Every structure is written in C-alpha cells, then in structure tokens.
Amino acid sequence: MKSIHFVSAEEAVKAVKSHDHIHLSGVAATPIILLDALKLRADAGEVEDLHFHHFHTEGPAIYSQPEYDGKFFDQGFFVGPNVRANVNAGYADYLPVHLGESQKLYRSGALPCDVAMIQVSLPDENGRVSLGTSVDATYAAVECAKTVIAVVNKYVPFAYGDLISVDDIDIFVEHNEKLITKGFAEPNETEKLIGKNCAELVPDGACLQMGIGALPNALAIQLLDHKNLGLHTEMFADGILKLIKAGVVNNTAKKIDVGQSVASFLLGSEDVYNYIDHNPAVAMKEIKYTNDPWIIAQNPNMMAINSATEVDFTGQISADSIGTRIFSGTGGQLDFVKGATMSEGGKSITAFASRTKTGKSKIVPLLNPGAGVVTPRADAHYIVTEWGAVDLWGKSLQERAKLMISIAHPDDREELDRAAFERFGPHYHNFSI
C-alpha cells in the first residue's frame, strides 16, 4: 500500500492537459474544489477543449457555461437542472446511453477517460477507500483512467460494496466539506393518489427500484403497511430510508444480496449519508452490477417504478425529453424494465401525473416531434396516473388506446377518444375495457 501524499487542488489539476476527457464523480460527490482549480487554469489560458462526462451532478456546473465555450465542453450521461439550459442552448451536450452501459463506454475504449476526478472517503486499515455516494460509472473510470485525482473528504461516507485501493489513485487532495444534500420532497394530493395506485400493485416481499422526488416519497408513505420489502435500485433517498427505519424494507425475501439494500449512487439528506456509513446492511455497487437486467431479474417480485414526460396511445414512453428539448436522460429505466419483467412475479410500472403543471395531457395520441422513446411500446406494462392503473402487456394498439384514455384526466378524455377514433378507424369503438 502506497503512502498518501497530499497536494493542493491547484497542483493536482496540473495533470490535466488540453483535449483530455474527464470523468467526474456525480450527484452529491462532485469534486467542486477540483473544478474551481481547473477553472483558474482555463482562465489563464493553460488548457482548452476539455470534455467532461458524468451522471447527474449537483452544484455549479462551470464546465457547461457559455463563457467557457472552447475551453470546457460537457457531454454528460444524464442531464440535471444545473446543465439543462446549456445543453438545450448547444453550449453543452448529452451522450445518450443506458446507465448500465455507461461503464462499458470506458471499458471498451469507445469513450476515452484520460482523467478521473473523484471524491473518496478516508481509507480503512487495508488502504481501501469508498466512493461513497457515487460508485456508478466512477468505479470503471478509476479502472480505465490514465490519471486518477481523488479528493479525500472525511464527510464522504465509507460505504461497503465496490471499494478501490489507494494504490489505484495517482494524486491526492485533502478537502473536508459536507456533501450536497437534498431534503425530503413532500408529495401533493395528485402524487399521493399516484402513490396509492402504485402501492396496490406491490405485494409483500417485493424488491423495489425507485428513485428520488415527491412521487417516490408518496409511494414510500403508502408502503408503510407492507412487509419484508427489498431494495435493488440505482439510487435511493429519504423516502426509502423511512421504509428501512420502519422495518418495512429488510431485504429478507431477496434471493441475492439477502439482507442488503443495494444501490449505485445517492442524493438525499445527511441522514441518508450517515445511514450508509460503515453499514454492512448497504452495498454501494458499480452500475454494471446494479443495472444488469440478468442480476435484477434474480430477485423475485422485482418492482421497477419509473416515470415519464409523456406516453402515447400505443405505450411508447418518453422520459428523457419534451419534444426536442432534453430534460434528463435515458437513465436506467429500460435496464430495470427488462430486469423486472424477467423477474418471477416482477412488474414494470410507469407512474406520472395525467397532466403537466400547465394543464396539458401527458397521455397523447402521438409523442411530441423529436421526443425520445426511452421504453418501447413492446416493453410497456403497467401505466399509473392519479386516475388509476392499467396493464398494456398483451394488448393491441386499439385496446391500449382505450386503456390509456381511461386513466387520462377526465377533462381530456373526450378529445383523446376522438383522436383515437381518427387514428384507428370505426372498429376502435368496438373495444370495451
């Protein structure tokens, strides 16, 4: 095991050269101190044409800003609020990939990884550090990068699972700063209804994949009376933590990783970060493992619960964009959809409010021009709104249209029904549900 020699952030980023491709730890663990130091080099004209790759990041995203055009160029695997406007203005870009395959971009050499800029925990007695809240594709980036720069931060939780050795790190920076947090989002009345409709599809003993936000929180509240739930997911937040602390999620009914909650990245309150610290009941694994459909499918009654920006009559699910405007990313939705549908007793559930905040129906005859199909119609199963739940699997296009309209907002149903009749012809009205 090598001895650790710390340098300043300004010294560390001297290892970055013009035209390098840089992987960033994501979500709560983005190494902002290294980005600030790299900004100074860019301001001095010392580097240009740097390409950044990452999952959703939190905090200031100087690598996507118009004033650094030509110096920094962001090509993230997922588009968060801090880069969304610049992606849609063309100053940054989105690299479409199933999150489970993001690590393969590095390992296959399809995407260069010259520098990995990461945050890690304090090392243990064996010289291993944890990637804490951002294992995801960062684990592969550390494996593949020519240079690994790590910020050692005492506030990064030491999470068991996929650990790295200090021998795999080239440059160390010491900087203790609390991770970015995101508080519990209180669900509104519509989200509470959606949560109730989803919860009715979840049996005791099920294994959950669900994310962060008011809708997952609404579902978590509705699951408090369930028993022996498990967790195998990309990420979790405070809603799931409530279920864990209530004993509802205990992972006893799983067939793999029994007794452990499995995730790959996190964003939540300090309670979430404290919970995973040195906790053998949590395994933070690389995205290759968490998002592998064959691994997901090994747990029975796997419930993949995702959302959508809009869904058309036939079950095409758009989740990464609103028309041509990129909103988020492909994420791991299809990874878990496939895994859940291969699981014994598993279900793929897509849940969303029937209308946008501006009152437009999210159930549409045709997707907006340019919208990305994240889950194809052949993979669409349960669709849930505040008005109910329907199962599209095994249903024809016309049957699907009837089912989708039945869970649209009541004020939108007549117009949608008219559009379905115009699309499918006179036999459409012969179907009943």
CATH class term of the largest domain: Alpha Beta
Task: Give the CA-CA distance, first to last residue.
Answer: 66 Å
CATH topology of the largest domain: Glutaconate Coenzyme A-transferase
The CATH homologous superfamily of the largest domain is named: Acetyl-CoA hydrolase/transferase C-terminal domain
* Structural domain tally: 2
Q: Helix segment count?
A: 14
| Extended strand count | 24
Radius of gyration: 22 Å
State which percent range the strand residues make up.
15-25%
Strand order within the widest beta sheet: 4-3-2-1-5-7-9
> Mean pLDDT, rounded to whole units?
96
Q: Which class do the helix and strand fractions yield?
A: alpha/beta
Query: Can you tell me the CATH architecture of the largest domain?
Result: 3-Layer(aba) Sandwich
Low-confidence stretches: none
* Major β-sheet profile: 7 strands, parallel
